[in-house]
Amino acid sequence: MNQQILSQVDHAAIKVSQTITMLLLLTAFILDSWLLTTFVAGVNLVGAAMPALSLFSLIYRRLLKPGGLVKPHLVPDYPEPHRFAQGFSGTVTALSALLVWGDVNVLGWALSWLVIVLANLNVFAGFCAGCFTYYQLSRLGVPGFQRSPRWV
């Protein structure tokens, strides 16, 4: 294995983003709003593609962290698996919105609930299913997934 250099990843920012995602998707479900679901999908897809433009991360960096409401939690880690997880979340949420818009509500909302459950798993148990998937794809040698878990 070649030498890989870890970055400092603020896991508090990730958890804030996931918490906002969960709350907005729960609200979208209660209101039966495919538009709100589409908004969440868009924010996550933009955040995965261009992290500096991530709205939920901006809320953390510009409001919550400076206001002392959330403390940074820097961890030696790779950002790529987290970006993959965010992009996958955005993709599943976009599919959810499309299905709800197309009146395939049970499957559409089931996909939103999948995102809610997986985000909860990371926020409350510290297990990132998207990161796990990224590392499995890396282990299998899939192009574009070059990082290995930091514990290896």
Helix content: 55-70%
Number of domains: 1
| Biggest beta sheet attributes | 2 strands, antiparallel
Roughly how many Å apart are the termini?
10 Å
Name the poorly predicted regions: none
Structural class: mainly alpha
Total DSSP E strands: 2
Arithmetic mean pLDDT: 93
Q: If strands are numbered along the chain, what order do they take across the biggest sheet?
A: 1-2
What's the Cα radius of gyration? Answer: 16 Å
| Assembly category | single chain
Residue fraction in strands: 5-15%
SSE run: EHHHEHHH
Give the overall shape, derived from the CA principal axes. globular
How many DSSP helices?
6
Layout of strands and helices, then pairs:
Layout: E1 7-10, H1 11-31, H2 34-49, H3 55-64, E2 74-77, H4 79-101, H5 105-125, H6 129-139
Antiparallel strand pairs: 1-2
Short description:
This protein has 152 residues and is mainly α. The protein contains 6 helices and 2 strands; from the N terminus they run βαααβααα.
Report on the structure:
The protein is mainly α and 152 residues long. It has one domain. It is built from six helices and two strands. It has helices spanning 11-31, 34-49, 55-64, 79-101, 105-125, 129-139; strands at residues 7-10, 74-77. A two-stranded antiparallel ribbon has the order 1-2. Helix 4 (79-101) runs antiparallel to helix 5 and helix 4 (79-101) packs across helix 6. The chain is globular. The termini are close together. The model has no long low-confidence stretch (mean pLDDT 93).
